[in-house]
Amino acid sequence: MALGRLVGRRLAVGTVILFVVSLLVFGASLLLPGDAARAVLGRSASPDRLAVVRAQMHLDDPAPQRYLAWASDLVTGDLGNSTVSQEPVIELIAGRSGNSLLLMAIAALVATPLSLLLGSWSALRRDQLADHATALGTLVLASLPEFVVGIALIYVFATGLLQWFPPVVSTTMPVLEQPSVLVLPVATLVLAVAPYITRMMRATMLEVLDSDFVHQARLNGIPERSVLWRHAVPNAIGPVAQVIGLQLAYLAGGIVLVEFLFAYPGIGQGIVEAVNARDIPTLQALIMLIAAFYVLVNLLADVVGVLTNPRLRTGVA
Amino acid sequence: MSVVDPTAPLSDHPRRMNAGGLQVRGLRVETRAGVAVVDGVDLDVPAGTVLGLVGESGSGKTTVGTALLGGTRRGLRIAGGSVLLEGIDLTTLSEVELRGWRGSRVSYVPQDPTTALDPAMRVGKQVREVLDCHDYGSGPDARAQRVTEAFGEVGLPTDGEFALRYPHQLSGGQQQRVCIAIAFATWPALVVLDEPTTGLDVTTQSLVLDTVRKLTQQHGCAALYISHDLAVVSTISDEVAVLYAGSVVERAPTEQLVHRPRHPYTSRLVAAVPDLAGRRALTGIPGGAPSPGARPPGCRFEPRCTLAVDECARGLPPLVPVADDHLARCIRSADVSPAEVRDRDPEVGRAADPLLRVEGLSARYGKVSVLHGLSLDVPRGTCVALLGESGSGKTTLARTIAGLHRDAEGTLSLAGERLPFGSHERTRQTRAAIAYVFQNPYSSLNPRRTVGDSVGRPLRVLRGVRGAELDRRVGEMLDRVYLSSHYAQRYPDQLSGGERQRVAVARALISEPTLLVCDEITSALDVSVQANLVGLIEEFRHELDLTLLFVTHDIALVRNVAQQVAVLQAGAIVENAPTERLFTDPQHAYTRELLETTPNLVS
Amino acid sequence: MSALVPPAGDGGVTAPVAGQTPGLLRRSLATGRTRAGLAITMLVVAVAVVGPFVAPGGETAIVGPPNASEVPGLLFGTDVTGRDVWTRFLHGGISVLWLSALCTLVGVGAGLLIALLAGYSRTWVDEILMRTTDVFLAFPAIVLALLFLAIFQPSAWTVILTVALGHAPRVARVMRSAVLDVAGRDYVRSAESMGLRRWSIRLGDLLPNVTGPLMVECGLRLTYSIGLVAGLGFLGLSGLAIDQADWGLMINEGRTAFTVQPWPVLLPVTAIGLLTVGTNLIADGIARAAAGTDREVGE
């Protein structure tokens, strides 16, 4: 079956990519100037203590061996301890990844239908005022970096003009117990990804509405509603699904700045903290996590693309 | 003539007699700026007959075709005239009323079935959808039955499995049959067929034409068959209308139009169509048709016409009767002579030594084998045609010879010397000795180089000519292809297709090659331009003692250009004979099939 | 292999290739949006370039109490250490500008090089290059930058190289498909039949015919560079000296006191926002002119 083979192949490619990514992430830490053990213990550490920690961290083993040890730990979920807090990295990640997933899931659920509707609506009003306004608005929003949008939202809705929502997340209680803190980060992420999906949906719909088969359907007297829902939309979904996938994967990068801005306790904030503290085990784990998510979402987008395209789904008879 | 309510469901009058047919008067379609794309279009198509509408590119024939369904391309609008069908003027209908007509009383068969069928919908569903939205028949059962029937009428399988396929699972010919099935499914009064066989091989084309002819008679409907190909039109139409620069210039029963044309353009057009019987010499029409907005105030053909007098430039002449059932838009129609049957003296291939010798050549793309050990001799100073349908491997053979395809085995030799496969392994002399003219004039010239730069490049690269000498020779070469030397400063996008192809010929010939490979060089051009280009190539062959390998799918053209023909099918040469013998005494079944199915103008 | 060219439109010839670059910039300037984009960009660039010369004081001078929004004689008050916000704003644009310009130049240049190599090569070179870009595409650009900034000390050069490293595979992807399209055209076959070397075909035939998408990529990547460079500054990772005036750093320093003194954040945020909108409007204008249609800029 063509579909199974295709998904299998993409899955294999994704695995290979993740393997190379892990080499890269691990290799990068080898380039770290100075001694990782000293980084853990600080400058005043005694030579004996240093030697013990070096042995603990397997720093004296050859690099390939250390990679294998690290990679097998990674696969089994043993991610080592943070060099800052000394807690197991896995615990640190568990809470944070839940928070980040929540943030991304809400953003995706809001952004996707919103932008599909807006994009189609704009395409159907081609060259009218509404279309031009949508095009210009999404272009402007697509240009703005997330932190610019986030700060603007904070100024308008939290600290400056209105005081509707808290500007940052309180660290004393779980995120779910303070749902109002989710509003602004979610809004920021939605404004970051929705413009791209909207523009893609509009462009794809325009292309499909201009295609020969839509023209032919009209010449066959098919009512406009059927032309739209039976011919145009099914053919526009495939290419747009790819862009949606890309944009959702993009969220994985977008959360870095947004979480930092809102002091949101997620993966993105964790990465920034790990970079600042040079907490390499935590950083490696978080980056592998994001890469895995990225590859997985792209894979899903591919599969949706295949499912919506009969040419790929059925193969040539 | 009974007036039919266009919005009434079809079920009220199934299979009604399509009496009356179509009358079009003074149809005018213009741009938003008010520039006419077509005007002065008068057509009559009685029920049960086929009217052929012939025109070259830019004549406005597709615009006329869609206007008959009350539609236009984006940016155009129907500005005047009437389109009468079953007593109702379609131009007066509202958008909702028109939608009720389209696909039920008037239907349209598109040019390119590969893009006109919805790729995401099963073909049976696409037929059914049209029946559903026009409330065809008594109910769902009747419609399901009609879908099967419609497939049967066009010779497609009527089992349920076929209806479940997606368009990409069908061949080009099958896709076009699905489009035809959709068009005829609702028993329309008028079917507009817009170049439905362009892009199909001749054998498939002939099947599609048979189907259309049969269905038109069976359904008793009027059909408008639009094409650039007068030969195709003449085989299917009862009457032919010729469209030039947006207006009908002549209309007559087919035989009469071809044998006794009364408009100079028609007469020249007939002369430009390659004759399968080989009795006429090809002659092109110099110049090009004026585009909308740049049309002369008088007769639009006047600038290119050899019969033109001063009066021709004063106002568009009316379309007037010149004989029974024969209309022409020309004040000098009495002086128009039929296409000259100049006795062509078929040139017999000289028994010369082969310049190019191909022995046991096989070629592949990756794992797919395209050529299977074929051998071919091209005698010095002659033109050898390589005839084959798409997918036969003819372009691969041509490219391998030119050093553009390296994945090959066997031997190639030029004037007795062995040729390596890749152009990089060949000597500079060999590269200069073999020149290539490509099929598509829009992709063979670098849009970022001036014409002079492109033409001079082989001379610079292969012969080391530079500076003033280079400019002089480029200018000379451009003069020789009848494009004066000031074309050197232009860019390709400022040129027409025919002009571009002349530039490509100039580029090929400037390094003074001994072998010229022409790969379908006329397939993107109008016949009148094709005839000019073929004439030009012929001139060069005589003057420069050039040897030609002429790759084409057009068997009629072959008879007019080549002394020897190699017929290629599925990567093997199935017949190789002197031209006259091939046409009078074909040996291979495939050659005979090609000869039988190719439409010919003068029957 | 020779399919009959399907005649487009009215049955004659295939449509000419759109996007001739002679006059591409001029044509893109004909639209109001591109002109608006250019005006906005020029305005911000002018502030950044002229700013240091017209700034009322020194960029590190302490002129008042910290985080005061209303200080007599100061337009926008003082920042977290009591320096003049307006002065620091005027000094702080130039670093964002040249850093993002260099990121774009290096990233697009590397991407173009990969594209020219991969899009017109024997298959294995193409395969290796494209699979390598796939690996780098498995990270969001900012995450890739953070990984490298954690390893190497943040400095202007590491910032430029890591941001460029994020751009290169994305540019390579887009440009490779443009190169592949051109490489399939017959004028490239014609050049091959003359025995020209591959690099002279790359530079003489391929490059001049992909300038349209290349310019679009430049504009697009410039927009992203500005966002990334300022974003890294916002995270405190731009590698600049700690007391240097920089729009990104200003946001980082000012965000804790945002409620009482918003100006150290609002001024640079507005400038960065305007700049990205301006450059993206230009990129969009070029893309429209190059496509000759209503096609859109996408990532």
The averaged pLDDT of chain A comes out at 82
Number of strands of chain A: 0
CATH class of chain C: Mainly Alpha
Terminus-to-terminus distance of chain C: 34 Å
Q: Report on the biggest sheet of chain A.
A: none
**CATH architectural name of chain C:** Orthogonal Bundle
Total separate domains of chain A:
2
β-strand percent of chain A reads under 5%
Q: What is the C-level CATH assignment of the largest domain in chain A?
A: Mainly Alpha
CATH topology of the largest domain in chain A: MetI-like fold
Structural Rg of chain A = 24 Å
* Shape label of chain C: elongated
CATH topology of chain C: MetI-like fold
Poorly predicted segments of chain A: none
Keywords:
heterotrimer; B: 603 residues; 6-stranded mixed β-sheet; 23% strand; C: 299 residues; mainly alpha; MetI-like fold; disordered N terminus
Secondary structure elements and their pairing?
The complex is a heterotrimer of chains A (317), B (603) and C (299).
Chain A lengths: L1 H29 L5 H6 L5 H10 L6 H14 L12 H36 L4 H15 L2 H14 L20 H30 L2 H8 L4 H39 L4 H11 L2 H28 L2 H5 L3
Helix pairs in contact in A: 1-4, 1-12, 5-6, 5-8, 5-10, 6-8, 7-8, 7-10, 8-10, 9-10, 10-11, 10-12, 11-12
Chain B lengths: L21 E10 L4 E10 L4 E5 L6 H7 L8 E10 L2 E2 L5 H7 L4 E4 L3 H4 L6 H11 L6 H14 L6 H4 L8 H14 L4 E5 L7 H18 L2 E6 L2 H7 L2 E6 L2 E7 H6 L4 H9 L47 E4 L2 E3 L25 E12 L2 E12 L3 E5 L6 H8 L6 E7 L2 E2 L9 H6 E4 L13 H13 L3 H14 L16 H13 L5 E5 L7 H18 L2 E6 L2 H7 L2 E6 L2 E7 H6 L4 H9 L6
Parallel strand pairs in B: 3-8, 3-9, 6-7, 7-8, 15-20, 15-21, 18-19, 19-20
Antiparallel strand pairs in B: 1-2, 1-4, 4-5, 9-10, 10-12, 11-12, 13-14, 13-16, 16-17, 21-22
Chain C lengths: L23 H6 L2 H23 L30 H7 L1 H27 L3 H14 L4 H11 L4 H28 L2 H8 L4 H9 L4 H24 L12 H8 L8 H29 L8
